[in-house]
Amino acid sequence: MRALRILLIVTIVLGGLFVIADRVAVGFAEDEAADRLKANENLSTTPDVSIKGFPFLTQVAGGELDEVQVGIKDYEADTSGAANGTDADVPAKIRIDNLTAQMRGVAFSGDYSSAKAATATGTATISYAELLKAAKAEPVDVATGVTAQVVGLSDGGNGKIKVEVEATVLGTKLPRPVSVLSSVSVKGDNVMVNADSLPNLGVQLAEDKVRLITDFQQKIDGLPGGIKLDKVEAAAKGVDIKVKGSDVSLVG
């Protein structure tokens, strides 16, 4: 009986030591991966990296991690394209807030210099202030004596964006911006904003001219590891985006 008690104590102690060693190892791996990701993506701050699943050491022995979660508070993505098909006044970067990605089936090389996920999904937000940069920055002639420009974007409710248009008619600026509800969608690497109806500026306007103002797009390229835009939806603080990818590079 005494021998069995000793064996149980030894087993518990060894199990505890294994858990401690496992948690120390996973913490070191998370810090190392975060530093390499920061360097690879030229991030201004160190991202959060969390390796899921237990035990970690047996996953390492198998050469593949079940899941790795990455969080980047502020990420500057390439725009690589122009709003409304022009190159004028288009920022080279756009800030994406709170990018979180879940990477599954992460296989890594023997020297840990590279790691690639079989699949990845994630979420992030583009603020309305950032998306507004994709709209026309200067007033545009939409009819004889009529100029207009987008001056504000906000949540329109029910998955719509409220687009505020400021207009000057025959030299007189309208007392307040006119708003329209717009739909937001994804087309390839672009976030598309298209008005559901035309704003009422008090004069007859050609639709194609007005849509030069109300409709615009923002290209989002160069996301971490090669993930791509999947879906978008207007929300309270900006446009919520979903991303996905396969064979996504975490490190290397």
UniProtKB/TrEMBL annotation:
Q: Which organism is it from?
A: Streptomyces ortus
* Name used for this protein in its record: DUF2993 domain-containing protein
Pfam families this protein is in? LmeA (PF11209)
